[in-house]
Amino acid sequence: MNYRPIVFISAIALSLAGAAIAQQQEPDWDAIQVAAIPIKPGIAVITGNGGNIGVSYGEDGTIIVDDQFAPLTEKIQATIAGLGATPVRYLVNTHWHFDHAGGNENFGKAGALIVAQNNVRTRLAAGGLVAGNTSPPAPKAALPVVTYDRGLTFHLNGDTIDVFHTGGGHTDGDSVIYWRKANVLHTGDMMMNGAGFPFIDLSSGGNALNLVRSLDQAIAITNADTVIIPGHGPLARKDDLIAWRGMIATSIDRVKGLKEAGRSLEDAKAAKPLAGLSNNPNGFVAEDAFVESIWRSLEAQRT
Question: What is the pTM of this model?
């Protein structure tokens, strides 16, 4: 299998560097290349600018997981058609962020049935802040019309596709999608392969401790042959997912130790407790930002 690199998105990276920068540097949508990388027969990942899109296609129709940004919809649709697939019948959102659900309105108007966890619809309908950027309330056509609490199952194209809410972590609406027969797992942004530290969206109900618990659930359904589509970054395997989970758990333990020792948040940041843990020093999330996310997560789960 060809594990070609999948380009990280620019908009979220800019957001995490600062909202003002993000607002000043709109991507050149015309220059962005959208491409499909086959994974298994009838399953591919589509890359461009935004979260990785999972696509499954066959005689029962086409289902996609996430849809990137609205200006890329036509390119995404053309890429799907290039696979020999029919127009999208079902669209599953892993969570509500604009780089994963920004194309919802376009696909909804084109006839796709949008499916997501309850909290995703609630947050899309209300709008809100993501990394300092305001997402306005989504129009009706962009909202999921089928929602669930814990999960649901599709029976399509000779496979059983489980969609289930793990309890969140990146946000409060995170879901993973698992093709049982093909043994392919889409994690959404609960895994951002090669991104350094994770983005915990506290304003959307994210929590670092919940993320570890959710990753444990994802790990439990995988094996050495599972192909993992992360929210961002190159395709991964179970060992990569375990390493990602381990880095987050170790980070939590280190910050928790400082907090329990009576250190302040600023002291904890100054101590650089996460030194050596990031696999990408130029990743989305700065060390201090992740330390604070863990600190706030610990505060939120105090008993």
Answer: 0.92
